[in-house]
Amino acid sequence: MSVGGTQTKSREAQPDQLGINVLKPKFPQYAVLSNRKESFKTWPKYITLQPEELAEAGFIYGGVGDSVKCYYCGGGLRYWEPGDEPWTEHAKWYPSCPHIALNKGPKFVEEVQAKEKGQVSADSSRINECKPKEPNPMDSLAVAALLDFDVEKTLIEDAVDFMAKKINSRDFSNIKAKDLMEIVFDIEEGKIPMRNSVLKNTEPAEVVHTLKIGKETPVAENIEFIQKETERLKEDRACKICLDSLTCVIFLPCGHMVSCPQCAPALYTCPLCRKDIKGTVKAFFA
């Protein structure tokens, strides 16, 4: 358009600049992860790269050598070398692919591109993903359930430290709230030394359980109740399609969030309201 003989450009941001994807997969039949894995039935056994890793990164196999292509953007890669990481290679060669944006986020692509140019930024460790590389047990569902019932935070921290040493891991994704609560009770009763808790100088005989609903309720019932609440929280946050991964994709224009990045591309209508999905955007939890 021209005004007074001068051409002007719209300053409105485009959807992709806002992190909104409006493109559909080029090979929609492979939008489902299981279908992509199925395509690797004849994947050469001499190649060390695992088909599961390639499928999760969005690739499908056509049956020729080690050539693969992305179901979403259609980009192809071949001549894989030992040590190659599918997500990184995908973002390196096809940075605008919606599958990368949905699953890893724009920060991941920026870091890969910066590293390729030899300009790795100082905050390279903070790459946005649905599942963090270094899980924080205090963000787990088990801890969330205890906090919901007003268990003292310092007691939970002590219980978390004890459990982490016991299982030799900081990944609490499979830890149940009842197991963590039992450790809290042992700490309160003096069976386990306390490190952070304010009850550190309190005699075991004088300790009162901090779980409010537990003052007049048997411990077994408290644990069972917390376990049910943990399962409910897990179900609420789980993808309604695969029932496994974390829900973090928002459908537009309805605004519902019911799917994980791997399942979202296979949907054309929202499972909740049945409205057509015109675009998607990845959500990040603080």
UniProtKB/TrEMBL annotation:
It comes from the Eukaryota. PANTHER family: DEATH-ASSOCIATED INHIBITOR OF APOPTOSIS 2, INHIBITOR OF APOPTOSIS. Belongs to the IAP family. Gene3D superfamilies: Death Domain, Fas, Inhibitor Of Apoptosis Protein (2mihbC-IAP-1), Chain A. Pfam families: BIR (PF00653), zf-C3HC4_3 (PF13920). Keywords: Apoptosis, Metal-binding, Zinc, Zinc-finger. Residues 239-274 form the RING-type domain. One of its GO terms (cellular component) is nucleus. This is RING-type domain-containing protein. GO terms for molecular function: cysteine-type endopeptidase inhibitor activity involved in apoptotic process; zinc ion binding. It comes from Potamilus streckersoni. GO terms for biological process: apoptotic process; negative regulation of apoptotic process; regulation of cell cycle.
